[in-house]
Specification:
single chain, mainly alpha, Hypothetical protein af1432, two-stranded antiparallel ribbon, 63% helix
């Protein structure tokens, strides 16, 4: 799934493909599910939904919000065709239908992860100086956050907004925000 995501044509400087997007969504889905107090097994189910959530795009293409005004991909047919040729295909099709219906907490966690990953992409590009990404992030933050289905996803979104993409590792290696903490790197701290 090296298919580029369609927003590349609007945002210009981006780093993702449908495959990398699905990977990020999967990791986020697991974390949200656990934050929502789901078991490991339930979180794995949410993660699996996230892994497959855009698989139909391998056949239909990735329709962005502009393209969706002019056409609608037949993702249901794509999924039927993709999963139709093997014994466990029905299990995957059922899982995708559960994801699409968004009735279970596992499905809600996976969908929230999809939304957060889009915000994450825009947030990183915004921090790298992409003014269009900043505009998208501000708009998407206002529009997507009320639609998130879990409190954990909302918490993650607000935490992301007030941090920066390097924060997760910076303090581990930097002293006084200026220089490499050589003692930590040497394992003495």
């Amino acid at each position: 799934m090296l298919l580029p995501r369609s927003h590349n044509k609007q945002l210009g400087t981006t780093f993702d493909t449908v495959a990398s997007h699905s990977h990020h969504v999967s990791v986020i889905a697991y974390c949200i599910a656990r934050m929502e107090k789901l078991t490991h097994e339930q979180a794995i189910k949410s993660t699996t939904m996230a892994v497959f959530h855009d698989l139909a795009e391998a056949r239909t293409g990735d329709y962005d919000f502009v393209a969706k005004h002019y056409g609608t991909p037949d993702e249901e047919k794509a999924l039927k065709d993709q999963f139709g040729g093997f014994d466990f295909g029905k299990d995957l099709k059922d899982l995708m239908e559960e994801y699409i219906e968004r009735k279970t907490l596992e499905a809600k966690c996976a969908k929230d992860a999809d939304s957060l990953e889009q915000l994450y992409l825009e947030w990183v590009l915004m921090w790298q100086g992409n003014k269009l990404a900043q505009k998208w992030f501000d708009s998407d933050f206002k529009d997507r956050i009320p639609g998130l289905r879990t409190e954990s996803a909302k918490k993650l979104a607000f935490t992301m907004k007030k941090s920066n993409p390097q924060e997760w590792w910076w303090s581990q290696f930097m002293k006084d925000d200026m220089a490499i903490d050589l003692e930590k790197l040497a394992g003495k701290n």
